[in-house]
Predict the structure.
Amino acid sequence: MSSARKKITVVGAGQVGTTVAQLAAYANLGDIVLIDIVPGFPQGKALDLQESGCLQAFDSLITGTNDYADTANSDIVVITAGLPRKPGMSREDLLATNAKIVKTVTEQIMKYSRNPIIIVVSNPLDAMVYMAKKVSGLGKDRVFGMAGVLDAARLRTFVALELGCSQIDVDAMVLGGHGDSMVPMPRYTTASGIPITELMDKATIERLVDRTRKGGAEIVQLLKNGSAFMAPGASVVKMIEAILHDKQRILPCTVYLEGEYGWSGIFFGVPVKIGIHGIEKVIELRLTEEEQKALDASAEEVKKTIKEVDALLGKS
Ligand code: APR
């Protein structure tokens, strides 16, 4: 049965992939294809989710598959395939393994979808989204990564808990790479429009910023076997919603830079306007000297991982 509904493919039916599929279905964002290499795994998850439709009041079709032909003509593809971190591992430790996976997945996706929007989640994020762009040949408006929405959500949470106020009233901006060098921006972090620099002392802000930088590791350490998936899944779905409903939201996303913020040829977290065409505009902020220095240090870290991807691509 063909459908006029939007088609969302989620690659990787693990923790993050399942959460994305679940929240996207609950929000009635379109039909969903869940694909994984493990036989039966995506089929089981998809059927289970489909059977919740009458309870959660969604009418999306949920398909579980191991065959990329079922992903044909996807509007949006979310790549979550790959290994998650174990305690003590950095995201960069996953590079070689996940790079191979993201390469294969992107090749397969492009065989069946001509012009999808690809959102990458697999880590190390900045390098994996670079791989997806190189392999897909898609424009920078159509391949980008989910990191900033999650990192900002963590900072928003920590600020709200500290102030004892509603999380809904707190907004935040986090720039840079999706690693320990990320650059949370207290100047652009507010509670109902009030910058937190007016509400907290410097030491408190520094503590929350540090916790944000290590937010992923904190959860890996607690879970012991796997990494965060609920806030990452919710972050991806916010991005899908912004695209499919053409919301023109301003969100931090990991996008390909061509001179913005003084950097070119890397994927990096910056504020963008996101709508039906994907990344519609990169927003450049005027930074203080200190902020630019932190951002440059983060870009240097990202550059290292991107070089590793180039080396892997050179070999293949
Ligand atoms: N094609 C399709 N799926 C694959 C492939 C592949 N080539 N290789 C692995 N997978 C699948 C696994 O079978 C597994 O079901 O990817 C899924 C990953 O799920 P989890 O192990 O539960 O990992 P998850 O917590 O979802 O994290 C996925 O997102 O946040 C990042 O760092 C995280 O890189 C990790 C990714």
User: Anything to note?
Assistant: The pocket of adenosine-5-diphosphoribose is lined by residues 11-17, 36-38, 80-85, 94, 98, 101, 104-105, 121-123, 226-227, 229, 232 (CB under 6 Å).
